Amino acid sequence: MKTLEKMSIGEYVANDYRTAALFSKYGIDFCCKGNRTLEEVCDKKGLNLSVLENEINSILESSNDATIDFKSWPLDLLIDYIVKTHHHYIEEKTPTLILFLDKLCKVHGERHPELFEINKLFKISASDLSHHLKKEELILFPFIKNMAISIKENQNMEQPHFGSVNNPIAMLKEEHETEGNLFSKIAELTDNYNPPKDACETYKVTFSMLRDFEQDLHKHIHLENNILFPSAIIMEERFSIIE
Protein backbone atom coordinates (compact mmCIF):
# COMPACT_ATOMS: atom_id res chain seq x y z
CA MET A 1 0.00 0.00 0.00
CA LYS A 2 1.25 3.46 -0.87
CA THR A 3 2.20 5.87 1.89
CA LEU A 4 -0.07 8.88 2.19
CA GLU A 5 2.29 11.35 0.55
CA LYS A 6 2.84 9.01 -2.43
CA MET A 7 -0.84 8.47 -3.21
CA SER A 8 -2.39 10.75 -5.81
CA ILE A 9 -5.14 13.17 -4.85
CA GLY A 10 -7.46 11.32 -7.21
CA GLU A 11 -6.73 8.02 -5.47
CA TYR A 12 -7.75 9.47 -2.11
CA VAL A 13 -11.08 10.65 -3.47
CA ALA A 14 -11.64 7.43 -5.41
CA ASN A 15 -11.13 5.44 -2.18
CA ASP A 16 -13.25 7.74 -0.02
CA TYR A 17 -15.21 10.61 -1.55
CA ARG A 18 -15.46 12.38 1.81
CA THR A 19 -11.87 13.57 1.28
CA ALA A 20 -13.14 15.71 -1.61
CA ALA A 21 -14.60 18.26 0.83
CA LEU A 22 -11.23 18.54 2.59
CA PHE A 23 -9.34 19.10 -0.66
CA SER A 24 -11.92 21.66 -1.76
CA LYS A 25 -11.44 23.52 1.54
CA TYR A 26 -7.75 23.96 0.69
CA GLY A 27 -8.43 24.80 -2.96
CA ILE A 28 -6.91 21.52 -4.17
CA ASP A 29 -8.18 20.30 -7.54
CA PHE A 30 -8.98 16.59 -7.06
CA CYS A 31 -10.65 15.98 -10.44
CA CYS A 32 -8.84 17.58 -13.39
CA LYS A 33 -5.46 17.56 -11.60
CA GLY A 34 -6.02 14.49 -9.47
CA ASN A 35 -2.81 12.81 -10.64
CA ARG A 36 -0.63 14.91 -8.28
CA THR A 37 0.64 13.49 -5.00
CA LEU A 38 -0.14 15.02 -1.63
CA GLU A 39 3.50 16.03 -1.27
CA GLU A 40 3.48 17.81 -4.65
CA VAL A 41 0.29 19.70 -3.81
CA CYS A 42 1.61 20.81 -0.40
CA ASP A 43 4.86 22.04 -1.96
CA LYS A 44 2.93 23.94 -4.63
CA LYS A 45 0.46 25.59 -2.25
CA GLY A 46 2.74 26.01 0.76
CA LEU A 47 0.63 23.70 2.92
CA ASN A 48 1.81 21.70 5.92
CA LEU A 49 1.98 18.06 4.79
CA SER A 50 1.70 16.62 8.31
CA VAL A 51 -1.39 18.68 9.12
CA LEU A 52 -3.10 17.63 5.91
CA GLU A 53 -2.18 13.98 6.47
CA ASN A 54 -3.68 14.11 9.95
CA GLU A 55 -6.91 15.59 8.62
CA ILE A 56 -7.10 12.90 5.94
CA ASN A 57 -6.47 10.16 8.49
CA SER A 58 -9.26 11.52 10.67
CA ILE A 59 -11.65 11.21 7.74
CA LEU A 60 -10.46 7.73 6.72
CA GLU A 61 -10.66 6.40 10.28
CA SER A 62 -14.19 7.71 10.90
CA SER A 63 -17.37 5.80 10.08
CA ASN A 64 -17.96 5.51 6.36
CA ASP A 65 -21.38 3.88 6.17
CA ALA A 66 -22.96 6.62 4.09
CA THR A 67 -20.25 6.77 1.42
CA ILE A 68 -20.94 5.02 -1.89
CA ASP A 69 -18.07 2.80 -2.98
CA PHE A 70 -18.09 3.64 -6.69
CA LYS A 71 -14.86 1.70 -7.24
CA SER A 72 -16.71 -1.55 -6.54
CA TRP A 73 -19.40 -0.89 -9.16
CA PRO A 74 -19.40 -2.67 -12.54
CA LEU A 75 -18.42 -0.18 -15.23
CA ASP A 76 -21.74 -0.42 -17.07
CA LEU A 77 -23.58 0.51 -13.86
CA LEU A 78 -21.15 3.39 -13.19
CA ILE A 79 -21.70 4.68 -16.74
CA ASP A 80 -25.48 4.60 -16.31
CA TYR A 81 -25.10 6.47 -13.02
CA ILE A 82 -22.89 9.15 -14.59
CA VAL A 83 -25.31 9.68 -17.47
CA LYS A 84 -28.51 9.67 -15.43
CA THR A 85 -27.09 11.74 -12.57
CA HIS A 86 -24.46 14.09 -13.96
CA HIS A 87 -25.16 14.33 -17.69
CA HIS A 88 -28.86 14.90 -17.04
CA TYR A 89 -27.99 17.50 -14.39
CA ILE A 90 -26.01 19.53 -16.94
CA GLU A 91 -28.77 19.25 -19.53
CA GLU A 92 -31.42 20.31 -17.01
CA LYS A 93 -29.62 23.22 -15.32
CA THR A 94 -27.84 24.81 -18.28
CA PRO A 95 -30.87 26.50 -19.96
CA THR A 96 -32.03 27.99 -16.65
CA LEU A 97 -28.59 29.34 -15.82
CA ILE A 98 -28.24 30.93 -19.26
CA LEU A 99 -31.66 32.55 -18.86
CA PHE A 100 -30.78 33.92 -15.42
CA LEU A 101 -27.32 35.13 -16.45
CA ASP A 102 -28.76 36.96 -19.46
CA LYS A 103 -31.27 38.64 -17.13
CA LEU A 104 -28.57 39.65 -14.64
CA CYS A 105 -26.48 41.21 -17.39
CA LYS A 106 -29.48 43.22 -18.59
CA VAL A 107 -30.58 44.42 -15.15
CA HIS A 108 -27.32 44.60 -13.16
CA GLY A 109 -24.60 44.66 -15.83
CA GLU A 110 -24.03 48.41 -15.64
CA ARG A 111 -23.19 48.25 -11.92
CA HIS A 112 -21.49 44.85 -12.11
CA PRO A 113 -19.75 44.56 -15.49
CA GLU A 114 -18.07 41.29 -14.41
CA LEU A 115 -21.44 39.63 -15.08
CA PHE A 116 -20.82 39.87 -18.82
CA GLU A 117 -17.57 37.89 -18.52
CA ILE A 118 -19.24 35.34 -16.22
CA ASN A 119 -22.05 34.92 -18.74
CA LYS A 120 -19.57 34.54 -21.59
CA LEU A 121 -17.50 31.92 -19.78
CA PHE A 122 -20.53 29.89 -18.76
CA LYS A 123 -21.87 29.86 -22.31
CA ILE A 124 -18.50 28.66 -23.59
CA SER A 125 -18.55 25.93 -20.96
CA ALA A 126 -22.14 24.97 -21.79
CA SER A 127 -21.36 24.66 -25.50
CA ASP A 128 -18.22 22.63 -24.85
CA LEU A 129 -20.02 20.34 -22.41
CA SER A 130 -22.83 19.68 -24.89
CA HIS A 131 -20.32 18.29 -27.42
CA HIS A 132 -18.34 16.55 -24.68
CA LEU A 133 -21.34 14.60 -23.36
CA LYS A 134 -22.23 13.42 -26.85
CA LYS A 135 -18.70 12.08 -27.38
CA GLU A 136 -18.98 10.11 -24.17
CA GLU A 137 -22.50 8.82 -24.75
CA LEU A 138 -22.08 7.95 -28.45
CA ILE A 139 -18.44 6.80 -28.63
CA LEU A 140 -16.60 5.93 -25.42
CA PHE A 141 -19.36 4.71 -23.13
CA PRO A 142 -20.86 2.21 -25.63
CA PHE A 143 -17.38 0.80 -26.27
CA ILE A 144 -16.72 0.31 -22.56
CA LYS A 145 -20.09 -1.41 -22.17
CA ASN A 146 -19.31 -3.68 -25.14
CA MET A 147 -15.98 -4.57 -23.56
CA ALA A 148 -17.77 -5.56 -20.36
CA ILE A 149 -20.16 -7.80 -22.33
CA SER A 150 -17.31 -9.36 -24.32
CA ILE A 151 -15.41 -10.24 -21.16
CA LYS A 152 -18.52 -11.69 -19.56
CA GLU A 153 -19.27 -13.81 -22.62
CA ASN A 154 -15.61 -14.64 -23.29
CA GLN A 155 -15.65 -13.08 -26.76
CA ASN A 156 -13.20 -10.99 -28.77
CA MET A 157 -13.95 -7.52 -30.13
CA GLU A 158 -13.14 -5.73 -33.33
CA GLN A 159 -10.78 -2.81 -32.92
CA PRO A 160 -12.74 0.47 -32.76
CA HIS A 161 -12.08 3.30 -35.19
CA PHE A 162 -10.29 5.28 -32.46
CA GLY A 163 -7.75 2.49 -31.82
CA SER A 164 -7.00 2.08 -28.13
CA VAL A 165 -9.39 3.32 -25.47
CA ASN A 166 -6.50 5.50 -24.31
CA ASN A 167 -7.07 7.84 -27.27
CA PRO A 168 -10.60 9.11 -26.53
CA ILE A 169 -9.82 9.09 -22.81
CA ALA A 170 -6.82 11.38 -23.32
CA MET A 171 -8.97 13.78 -25.36
CA LEU A 172 -11.80 13.76 -22.82
CA LYS A 173 -9.41 14.39 -19.93
CA GLU A 174 -8.04 17.43 -21.76
CA GLU A 175 -11.59 18.71 -22.15
CA HIS A 176 -12.21 18.10 -18.44
CA GLU A 177 -9.23 20.29 -17.62
CA THR A 178 -10.57 23.02 -19.89
CA GLU A 179 -13.92 22.95 -18.07
CA GLY A 180 -12.15 23.06 -14.72
CA ASN A 181 -10.20 26.13 -15.80
CA LEU A 182 -13.34 27.90 -17.03
CA PHE A 183 -15.08 27.39 -13.71
CA SER A 184 -12.00 28.49 -11.79
CA LYS A 185 -12.32 31.81 -13.60
CA ILE A 186 -16.05 31.97 -12.91
CA ALA A 187 -15.44 31.27 -9.21
CA GLU A 188 -12.87 34.06 -9.12
CA LEU A 189 -15.17 36.55 -10.86
CA THR A 190 -18.06 35.73 -8.51
CA ASP A 191 -15.91 35.97 -5.36
CA ASN A 192 -16.46 32.22 -4.87
CA TYR A 193 -20.17 32.63 -5.63
CA ASN A 194 -20.78 35.32 -3.01
CA PRO A 195 -23.31 37.82 -4.43
CA PRO A 196 -22.80 41.57 -3.81
CA LYS A 197 -24.74 43.44 -1.15
CA ASP A 198 -27.17 44.92 -3.69
CA ALA A 199 -28.01 41.52 -5.19
CA CYS A 200 -31.66 40.69 -5.83
CA GLU A 201 -33.10 37.21 -5.26
CA THR A 202 -32.41 36.16 -8.87
CA TYR A 203 -28.80 37.26 -8.42
CA LYS A 204 -28.46 35.15 -5.26
CA VAL A 205 -30.16 32.11 -6.79
CA THR A 206 -27.99 32.31 -9.91
CA PHE A 207 -24.75 32.37 -7.93
CA SER A 208 -25.99 29.50 -5.78
CA MET A 209 -26.83 27.50 -8.92
CA LEU A 210 -23.40 28.22 -10.38
CA ARG A 211 -21.79 26.93 -7.17
CA ASP A 212 -23.89 23.77 -7.28
CA PHE A 213 -23.10 23.33 -10.97
CA GLU A 214 -19.36 23.49 -10.33
CA GLN A 215 -19.58 21.06 -7.41
CA ASP A 216 -21.57 18.58 -9.48
CA LEU A 217 -19.07 18.97 -12.33
CA HIS A 218 -16.18 18.22 -9.96
CA LYS A 219 -17.79 14.98 -8.81
CA HIS A 220 -18.68 14.09 -12.40
CA ILE A 221 -15.10 14.58 -13.59
CA HIS A 222 -13.75 12.74 -10.56
CA LEU A 223 -15.86 9.65 -11.29
CA GLU A 224 -14.55 9.57 -14.85
CA ASN A 225 -10.91 10.61 -14.45
CA ASN A 226 -10.17 8.69 -11.26
CA ILE A 227 -12.43 5.62 -11.50
CA LEU A 228 -14.08 4.96 -14.88
CA PHE A 229 -11.21 5.82 -17.23
CA PRO A 230 -8.43 3.92 -15.38
CA SER A 231 -10.73 0.89 -15.03
CA ALA A 232 -11.56 0.98 -18.74
CA ILE A 233 -7.85 1.02 -19.63
CA ILE A 234 -7.25 -2.01 -17.40
CA MET A 235 -10.30 -3.77 -18.87
CA GLU A 236 -9.03 -3.30 -22.42
CA GLU A 237 -5.83 -5.13 -21.47
CA ARG A 238 -7.77 -8.21 -20.31
CA PHE A 239 -8.85 -9.52 -23.71
CA SER A 240 -7.86 -9.59 -27.36
CA ILE A 241 -9.14 -7.03 -29.84
CA ILE A 242 -9.28 -8.23 -33.45
CA GLU A 243 -7.66 -5.76 -35.83
Write up what this structure looks like.
The structure is a single chain. The chain has 243 residues and is mostly helical. The chain has eight helices and two strands. α1 packs across α8 and α5 packs antiparallel against α8. The longest helix is centred in the middle third of the chain and has 39 residues. The two termini are 37 Å apart. The model has no long low-confidence stretch (mean pLDDT 88).
Report the radius of gyration as a whole number of Å. 20 Å
Shape: globular
Would you tell me the overall average pLDDT? 88
Structural class: mainly alpha
Report the β-strand fraction as a percent range.
under 5%
Brief write-up:
The chain is an all-alpha fold. The chain is built from eight helices and two strands, in the order H-H-H-H-H-H-E-H-H-E.
Element layout with pairings:
Layout: H1 9-15, H2 19-25, H3 38-45, H4 49-61, H5 75-108, H6 114-152, E1 157-158, H7 166-189, H8 201-236, E2 241-242
Parallel strand pairs: 1-2
